[in-house]
Amino acid sequence: MKSSKDVRGARGERPRKLGLCVLCGLPAAGKSTFARALSHQLRQERGWAVGVVAYDDVMPDAFLEEPFQWKSLRQELLKYLEYFLLAVINGCQMSAPSNRTEAMWEHFITCLKDQNFISSAALEAQSCYILMKTAVSGPLFLILDDNFYYQSMRYEVYQLARKYSTGFCQLFLDCPLETCLQRNGGRPRALPAETLRLMGGKLEEPNPEKNAWERNSLTVRSSACSSEASPELIDLLLTALENPVKYVEENIEQKETDRIICSTNILHQADRALRRVISQTMREAKDEQVLPSNLKLLAEELNKLKAEFLEDLRQGNKKYLCFQQTIDISDVTSFFQYEKDGIVQKYFSKQH
Asked: Which pLDDT belongs to residue 255?
């Protein structure tokens, strides 16, 4: 696969506008219904090509029998999206990643085919797919429908938008927890109520005042959802399309200076903050009656993760904390929580 820099240099001016829209909120908040209605309206009234990628459809529960895999599968799905964006940008066939979860890839391909974005090529045996006219004419918006309850989950999508200079925006579907619990209870495959409550406690709403990359965000009240998108929502999408995220070439010397200043000021604070997170997590594990032998293993894994985070801060935020600018403690904590959950679910699941 070509690098983002090679792609930008080869294509010159992009012939069409591209956008990624993150749709976040609690399970049963009404996101999927909202996404389908919005997609239909934008296709009918604006003539845009709009695709909805519902994470629950592409990554069904059957693939998550081991809960700690959820993070790697989410990142794999972003890689699939990148391959599709590359095909659209270059106007070529879409290829398949060499390393992929075959069943999940097939769900992703089905998602694109059902929305008339791709068709099977004559070389399907070689995993190539032809872009349909829908995918190569007019503005194209992809709506990513998932909970995205951590800021760090949404930031991964922003990084993808920045890599290929596409538009980016966020829609937060705000729905009271009790309403979500009631709706969830009526679903054939309902989530455990406690899981939904825990997610509600961890939910990090978009914060444009704190994070410049979240400035194109809008909160939509679930009770206010209708079949017609509000003028504010249309303006948000138009703004995203007209103002794609700029790809910024790294200034290595300045970045190193910023890193030294950042690490000097933040390492001690980060160490204390992550210790508190680990202590709280261990208390929760004891409440869940995790076996003593597993408690020891869990503590070892969490402390190893903390050490990796602190080293990441020292070395310049290359693995976990890949921000453009200096970060603060809440950023570190948010990203640590994201990584930590993948570890914790592995041990909690052993109890059931």
From this structure: 56
